[in-house]
Design brief:
With about 300 residues, the protein is mainly α. It contains 11 helices and no strands.
Protein backbone atom coordinates (compact mmCIF):
# COMPACT_ATOMS: atom_id res chain seq x y z
CA UNK A 1 0.00 0.00 0.00
CA UNK A 2 1.30 3.46 -0.90
CA UNK A 3 2.10 5.80 1.95
CA UNK A 4 -0.75 8.24 1.27
CA UNK A 5 -3.20 5.70 -0.19
CA UNK A 6 -6.69 5.72 1.28
CA UNK A 7 -7.35 2.60 3.44
CA UNK A 8 -10.68 1.96 1.71
CA UNK A 9 -9.02 2.07 -1.71
CA UNK A 10 -6.31 -0.30 -0.53
CA UNK A 11 -8.89 -2.72 0.87
CA UNK A 12 -10.90 -2.64 -2.34
CA UNK A 13 -7.76 -3.25 -4.36
CA UNK A 14 -6.88 -6.24 -2.18
CA UNK A 15 -10.39 -7.65 -2.66
CA UNK A 16 -10.12 -7.24 -6.42
CA UNK A 17 -6.78 -9.04 -6.35
CA UNK A 18 -8.46 -11.96 -4.54
CA UNK A 19 -11.19 -12.17 -7.15
CA UNK A 20 -8.79 -11.84 -10.08
CA UNK A 21 -7.01 -14.96 -8.93
CA UNK A 22 -10.21 -16.97 -9.34
CA UNK A 23 -11.56 -15.46 -12.55
CA UNK A 24 -11.57 -17.60 -15.68
CA UNK A 25 -13.13 -17.49 -19.17
CA UNK A 26 -16.71 -18.68 -19.68
CA UNK A 27 -15.74 -21.86 -21.50
CA UNK A 28 -13.29 -22.71 -18.75
CA UNK A 29 -16.14 -22.28 -16.27
CA UNK A 30 -18.14 -24.85 -18.23
CA UNK A 31 -15.21 -27.26 -18.25
CA UNK A 32 -14.77 -26.76 -14.51
CA UNK A 33 -18.50 -27.36 -13.94
CA UNK A 34 -18.39 -30.57 -15.99
CA UNK A 35 -15.40 -31.78 -13.99
CA UNK A 36 -17.05 -31.10 -10.65
CA UNK A 37 -20.32 -32.73 -11.74
CA UNK A 38 -18.40 -35.78 -12.95
CA UNK A 39 -16.63 -36.21 -9.63
CA UNK A 40 -19.87 -35.71 -7.70
CA UNK A 41 -21.71 -38.23 -9.91
CA UNK A 42 -18.92 -40.78 -9.51
CA UNK A 43 -19.04 -40.41 -5.73
CA UNK A 44 -22.82 -40.83 -5.74
CA UNK A 45 -22.68 -43.95 -7.93
CA UNK A 46 -20.08 -45.58 -5.68
CA UNK A 47 -22.07 -44.68 -2.55
CA UNK A 48 -25.27 -45.94 -4.17
CA UNK A 49 -23.74 -49.32 -5.01
CA UNK A 50 -22.33 -49.71 -1.50
CA UNK A 51 -25.67 -48.79 0.08
CA UNK A 52 -27.51 -51.13 -2.27
CA UNK A 53 -25.26 -53.96 -1.07
CA UNK A 54 -26.16 -53.06 2.52
CA UNK A 55 -29.83 -52.31 1.79
CA UNK A 56 -31.02 -55.09 4.10
CA UNK A 57 -29.18 -53.80 7.22
CA UNK A 58 -30.38 -50.27 6.42
CA UNK A 59 -33.92 -51.57 6.07
CA UNK A 60 -33.69 -53.43 9.41
CA UNK A 61 -32.42 -50.28 11.11
CA UNK A 62 -35.30 -48.20 9.75
CA UNK A 63 -37.90 -50.72 10.95
CA UNK A 64 -36.57 -50.58 14.51
CA UNK A 65 -38.96 -47.83 15.80
CA UNK A 66 -42.00 -49.80 14.62
CA UNK A 67 -40.82 -53.26 15.59
CA UNK A 68 -39.64 -52.21 19.06
CA UNK A 69 -43.17 -51.04 19.86
CA UNK A 70 -44.68 -54.17 18.35
CA UNK A 71 -42.44 -56.56 20.31
CA UNK A 72 -43.64 -54.97 23.54
CA UNK A 73 -47.10 -56.31 22.70
CA UNK A 74 -45.92 -59.64 21.44
CA UNK A 75 -44.56 -60.96 24.72
CA UNK A 76 -44.32 -59.63 28.26
CA UNK A 77 -41.21 -61.69 29.02
CA UNK A 78 -38.60 -63.48 26.96
CA UNK A 79 -38.71 -60.79 24.26
CA UNK A 80 -35.00 -61.15 23.51
CA UNK A 81 -35.50 -64.83 22.68
CA UNK A 82 -38.38 -64.10 20.36
CA UNK A 83 -36.45 -61.34 18.57
CA UNK A 84 -33.37 -63.54 18.17
CA UNK A 85 -35.22 -66.59 16.89
CA UNK A 86 -37.96 -64.69 15.04
CA UNK A 87 -40.54 -66.88 16.73
CA UNK A 88 -43.24 -65.85 19.12
CA UNK A 89 -44.11 -67.97 22.13
CA UNK A 90 -46.84 -65.82 23.56
CA UNK A 91 -48.58 -68.68 25.36
CA UNK A 92 -47.62 -68.64 29.01
CA UNK A 93 -46.31 -65.07 28.95
CA UNK A 94 -49.27 -63.74 30.94
CA UNK A 95 -50.57 -61.61 28.09
CA UNK A 96 -54.12 -60.38 27.89
CA UNK A 97 -55.91 -61.58 24.75
CA UNK A 98 -55.84 -58.13 23.14
CA UNK A 99 -52.10 -57.78 23.77
CA UNK A 100 -51.13 -60.77 21.70
CA UNK A 101 -50.35 -59.30 18.27
CA UNK A 102 -47.91 -61.96 17.13
CA UNK A 103 -44.66 -61.14 15.38
CA UNK A 104 -44.36 -57.77 13.61
CA UNK A 105 -44.22 -57.80 9.85
CA UNK A 106 -44.43 -55.53 6.84
CA UNK A 107 -46.27 -56.60 3.73
CA UNK A 108 -45.93 -55.92 0.01
CA UNK A 109 -48.56 -56.47 -2.65
CA UNK A 110 -46.51 -56.22 -5.84
CA UNK A 111 -43.78 -58.64 -6.83
CA UNK A 112 -41.34 -55.78 -7.48
CA UNK A 113 -42.15 -53.77 -4.33
CA UNK A 114 -39.19 -55.08 -2.33
CA UNK A 115 -36.78 -54.51 -5.21
CA UNK A 116 -37.86 -50.89 -5.63
CA UNK A 117 -37.79 -50.40 -1.88
CA UNK A 118 -34.16 -51.51 -1.77
CA UNK A 119 -33.45 -49.25 -4.74
CA UNK A 120 -35.06 -46.27 -3.02
CA UNK A 121 -33.17 -46.94 0.21
CA UNK A 122 -29.89 -47.17 -1.70
CA UNK A 123 -30.58 -43.92 -3.56
CA UNK A 124 -31.40 -41.90 -0.44
CA UNK A 125 -28.66 -43.46 1.66
CA UNK A 126 -26.16 -43.08 -1.19
CA UNK A 127 -27.03 -39.41 -1.56
CA UNK A 128 -26.47 -38.90 2.14
CA UNK A 129 -23.18 -40.86 2.19
CA UNK A 130 -21.83 -39.02 -0.84
CA UNK A 131 -23.04 -35.60 0.34
CA UNK A 132 -19.64 -34.53 1.81
CA UNK A 133 -17.96 -35.10 -1.55
CA UNK A 134 -20.86 -33.51 -3.43
CA UNK A 135 -20.73 -30.41 -1.24
CA UNK A 136 -16.96 -30.32 -1.57
CA UNK A 137 -17.21 -30.33 -5.38
CA UNK A 138 -19.83 -27.60 -5.22
CA UNK A 139 -17.56 -25.62 -2.96
CA UNK A 140 -14.58 -26.07 -5.31
CA UNK A 141 -16.70 -24.68 -8.15
CA UNK A 142 -17.95 -21.53 -6.41
CA UNK A 143 -14.93 -20.80 -4.19
CA UNK A 144 -12.85 -18.96 -6.83
CA UNK A 145 -15.52 -16.27 -7.05
CA UNK A 146 -15.59 -15.55 -3.31
CA UNK A 147 -13.48 -13.48 -0.97
CA UNK A 148 -11.37 -15.27 1.62
CA UNK A 149 -13.76 -14.39 4.45
CA UNK A 150 -16.74 -15.59 2.42
CA UNK A 151 -14.92 -18.86 1.71
CA UNK A 152 -14.42 -19.49 5.43
CA UNK A 153 -18.07 -18.73 6.15
CA UNK A 154 -19.25 -21.00 3.33
CA UNK A 155 -17.21 -23.91 4.67
CA UNK A 156 -18.67 -23.39 8.14
CA UNK A 157 -22.20 -23.21 6.72
CA UNK A 158 -21.74 -26.45 4.78
CA UNK A 159 -20.31 -28.24 7.83
CA UNK A 160 -22.92 -27.09 10.32
CA UNK A 161 -25.75 -27.65 7.83
CA UNK A 162 -24.81 -31.33 7.64
CA UNK A 163 -24.42 -31.60 11.43
CA UNK A 164 -27.75 -29.91 12.18
CA UNK A 165 -29.59 -31.96 9.57
CA UNK A 166 -28.24 -35.24 10.94
CA UNK A 167 -29.12 -34.17 14.49
CA UNK A 168 -32.68 -33.43 13.42
CA UNK A 169 -33.06 -36.75 11.62
CA UNK A 170 -31.66 -38.70 14.59
CA UNK A 171 -33.90 -36.78 17.00
CA UNK A 172 -36.87 -37.82 14.89
CA UNK A 173 -35.70 -41.43 14.73
CA UNK A 174 -34.99 -41.78 18.47
CA UNK A 175 -37.83 -39.73 19.96
CA UNK A 176 -40.57 -38.71 17.51
CA UNK A 177 -41.02 -41.91 15.49
CA UNK A 178 -41.40 -44.23 18.52
CA UNK A 179 -44.13 -41.96 19.88
CA UNK A 180 -45.83 -41.76 16.50
CA UNK A 181 -45.84 -45.52 15.94
CA UNK A 182 -46.88 -46.21 19.50
CA UNK A 183 -49.97 -44.09 18.88
CA UNK A 184 -50.68 -45.62 15.48
CA UNK A 185 -50.38 -49.15 16.85
CA UNK A 186 -52.58 -48.41 19.85
CA UNK A 187 -55.55 -49.50 17.75
CA UNK A 188 -54.15 -53.02 17.45
CA UNK A 189 -55.73 -55.97 19.18
CA UNK A 190 -55.64 -59.73 18.86
CA UNK A 191 -58.37 -59.59 16.20
CA UNK A 192 -57.58 -56.23 14.54
CA UNK A 193 -53.88 -56.09 13.66
CA UNK A 194 -52.17 -53.56 11.44
CA UNK A 195 -50.41 -54.82 8.33
CA UNK A 196 -48.20 -51.89 7.29
CA UNK A 197 -47.16 -51.79 3.66
CA UNK A 198 -43.40 -51.73 3.23
CA UNK A 199 -43.41 -48.75 0.86
CA UNK A 200 -45.82 -46.67 2.92
CA UNK A 201 -43.91 -47.31 6.12
CA UNK A 202 -40.53 -46.38 4.69
CA UNK A 203 -41.97 -43.30 2.94
CA UNK A 204 -43.47 -42.17 6.24
CA UNK A 205 -40.21 -42.76 8.11
CA UNK A 206 -38.14 -41.00 5.45
CA UNK A 207 -40.45 -37.99 5.16
CA UNK A 208 -40.56 -37.56 8.94
CA UNK A 209 -36.78 -37.65 9.25
CA UNK A 210 -36.40 -35.19 6.38
CA UNK A 211 -38.91 -32.82 7.97
CA UNK A 212 -37.13 -32.84 11.32
CA UNK A 213 -33.77 -32.45 9.59
CA UNK A 214 -35.06 -29.37 7.76
CA UNK A 215 -36.48 -27.91 10.99
CA UNK A 216 -33.08 -28.21 12.67
CA UNK A 217 -31.61 -25.96 9.96
CA UNK A 218 -33.53 -23.01 11.45
CA UNK A 219 -30.60 -21.45 13.38
CA UNK A 220 -28.41 -21.40 10.26
CA UNK A 221 -31.21 -19.91 8.18
CA UNK A 222 -31.82 -17.11 10.67
CA UNK A 223 -28.07 -16.55 11.05
CA UNK A 224 -27.86 -16.06 7.28
CA UNK A 225 -30.79 -13.61 7.35
CA UNK A 226 -29.06 -11.69 10.13
CA UNK A 227 -25.82 -11.57 8.15
CA UNK A 228 -27.52 -9.97 5.15
CA UNK A 229 -29.36 -7.54 7.42
CA UNK A 230 -32.90 -8.83 6.90
CA UNK A 231 -33.50 -9.54 10.61
CA UNK A 232 -32.03 -8.46 13.94
CA UNK A 233 -32.21 -9.94 17.41
CA UNK A 234 -34.65 -7.19 18.36
CA UNK A 235 -37.13 -8.03 15.61
CA UNK A 236 -36.77 -11.76 16.31
CA UNK A 237 -37.47 -11.24 20.01
CA UNK A 238 -40.63 -9.25 19.24
CA UNK A 239 -41.83 -12.03 16.95
CA UNK A 240 -41.03 -14.83 19.42
CA UNK A 241 -44.53 -14.98 20.95
CA UNK A 242 -46.05 -15.46 17.50
CA UNK A 243 -43.40 -18.02 16.63
CA UNK A 244 -44.51 -20.24 19.51
CA UNK A 245 -48.02 -20.43 18.06
CA UNK A 246 -46.65 -20.83 14.54
CA UNK A 247 -44.39 -23.68 15.67
CA UNK A 248 -47.34 -25.75 16.85
CA UNK A 249 -49.21 -25.00 13.63
CA UNK A 250 -46.22 -26.14 11.57
CA UNK A 251 -45.85 -29.17 13.81
CA UNK A 252 -49.47 -30.10 13.19
CA UNK A 253 -48.98 -29.77 9.43
CA UNK A 254 -45.64 -31.56 9.05
CA UNK A 255 -46.16 -34.44 11.45
CA UNK A 256 -48.00 -37.24 9.66
CA UNK A 257 -49.82 -38.51 12.74
CA UNK A 258 -52.79 -36.89 14.46
CA UNK A 259 -51.37 -37.49 17.94
CA UNK A 260 -50.46 -34.52 20.09
CA UNK A 261 -47.19 -36.04 21.28
CA UNK A 262 -45.48 -36.10 17.87
CA UNK A 263 -46.70 -32.58 17.15
CA UNK A 264 -45.31 -31.43 20.48
CA UNK A 265 -41.99 -33.17 19.76
CA UNK A 266 -41.65 -31.17 16.55
CA UNK A 267 -42.88 -27.86 17.93
CA UNK A 268 -40.67 -27.89 21.02
CA UNK A 269 -37.34 -28.04 19.12
CA UNK A 270 -38.60 -25.31 16.80
CA UNK A 271 -39.23 -23.01 19.76
CA UNK A 272 -35.87 -23.80 21.38
CA UNK A 273 -33.97 -23.44 18.12
CA UNK A 274 -35.64 -20.09 17.50
CA UNK A 275 -34.42 -18.84 20.87
CA UNK A 276 -30.90 -20.04 20.04
CA UNK A 277 -31.19 -18.24 16.71
CA UNK A 278 -31.86 -14.98 18.53
CA UNK A 279 -28.45 -15.32 20.20
CA UNK A 280 -26.82 -15.86 16.80
CA UNK A 281 -28.60 -12.82 15.39
CA UNK A 282 -27.59 -10.77 18.44
CA UNK A 283 -23.93 -11.58 17.84
CA UNK A 284 -24.15 -10.61 14.17
CA UNK A 285 -26.13 -7.42 14.81
CA UNK A 286 -23.89 -6.18 17.62
CA UNK A 287 -20.78 -6.79 15.53
CA UNK A 288 -22.28 -4.92 12.57
CA UNK A 289 -23.38 -1.99 14.73
CA UNK A 290 -19.96 -1.71 16.37
CA UNK A 291 -18.27 -1.76 12.99
CA UNK A 292 -20.65 0.92 11.69
CA UNK A 293 -20.04 3.06 14.78
CA UNK A 294 -16.26 2.72 14.41
CA UNK A 295 -16.50 3.65 10.73
CA UNK A 296 -18.64 6.67 11.53
CA UNK A 297 -16.17 7.77 14.20
CA UNK A 298 -13.28 7.38 11.75
CA UNK A 299 -15.06 9.48 9.12
CA UNK A 300 -15.94 12.13 11.69
CA UNK A 301 -12.32 12.21 12.87
CA UNK A 302 -11.07 12.58 9.30
CA UNK A 303 -13.40 15.55 8.77
Amino acid sequence: MAKDEDPEVATERAHEAELDGGRMPFLQHLVELRTRLTYAAMAFVVAFLVCWYYAKPIFNWLTKPLFDIWYQHCVSSGVATCMATNTCACVGHNLKPDDNWGLPKLIYTGLTDVFWTDMSLALWAGLFVASPIIFYQLWKFIAPGLYKRERRISIAFALFSAVFFVCGALFCFDFALPQLYAYMLSYNSATVVSLPHITQYLDLTRDSMLAFGAIFELPLFIYFLAMVGMVTHRSLWKFSRYWIVLSFVIGAILTPGPDVVSQFLMATPMVLLYQISILFAWRVTIRRERKAAAEAARVAGAD
